[in-house]
Amino acid sequence: LVSRKVKKEDTVLDIDGVRIGGDAPPIIIAGPCSIESEEQMEQTAEYLAGKGVKILRGGAYKPRTSPYGFQGMGVDGLILGGRVARANKMLFVTEVMDTRDVEVVAEYADILQVGARNMHNFALLREVGRARRPVLLKRGLSATIEEWLYAAEYILSEGNNEVILCERGIRTFEKWTRNTLDLSAVALAKQETHLPVIVDVTHAAGRRDLLIPLAKAALAVGADGIHIEVHPSPATALSDNEQQLDFAGYDKFDEALKPMMKVPAGV
Ligand code: PEP
Ligand code: MN
């Protein structure tokens, strides 16, 4: 179902007027790694909305390496994220980690995110496949392109055709970056499937100084958008403080990417 052999033309999602994929201009999904407080979310959403960002991200359920790390605000975070996004006329995307939470996450989020660590969670893939919300599907930490596309197939096979593929870097022997951004996977997923494909530069790089060149490269190979973490005060963030951009950092990112974010001719 995900294959171009089955459907030749690009799938273009239209989520409350925000178009993703095909001839739509590239989209930016931005926001903090974790939802931490009302002030943090309001400041971030207001700032990003002012920059023209239409989709706000923020984790309420966090897949942390250590069980003692901040695990997210849960339902309170969902409510907060949904409210702040709406107040700023943005869509809200957040991760769902457990089949039991799909219903409540779908109540507050416009897009359900399946994280890298759950790409192989087939029960969760089936459950979001039955939800009436678009799904942002991250590539697993060490998933092949084929495994990633089969994970998307699980979602479509349950009747949900609204899937956005997201390359977020894979594990390699390289240590100077947190993961290795696989640009071939972006080009291949665009070629082999009709689904929109975006690139999460934050988790791919794991360091701020590579976000601009990686985002440019992603768009150059055909990505339909960029996913990036932005926090009012990355140094004090409860997760991912090495790689989130502050507002001044996002100003620079926005400026650098602007020439590549133009509306395609004729649209
Ligand atoms: C995230 O986007 O919040 C996240 C945890 O990313 P990933 O699943 O790609 O590691
Ligand atoms: Mn993060």
From TrEMBL:
Entry's EC annotation: 2.5.1.54, 5.4.99.5
Keywords: Isomerase, Transferase
Source organism superkingdom: Bacteria
Record carries keyword Hydrolase: no
Record bears the keyword Isomerase: yes
One Gene Ontology term of the molecular function aspect: 3-deoxy-7-phosphoheptulonate synthase activity
Record-given protein name: 3-deoxy-7-phosphoheptulonate synthase/chorismate mutase
Species, as recorded: Deinococcus radiopugnans ATCC 19172
Entire-sequence positions represented here: 97 to 363 of 363
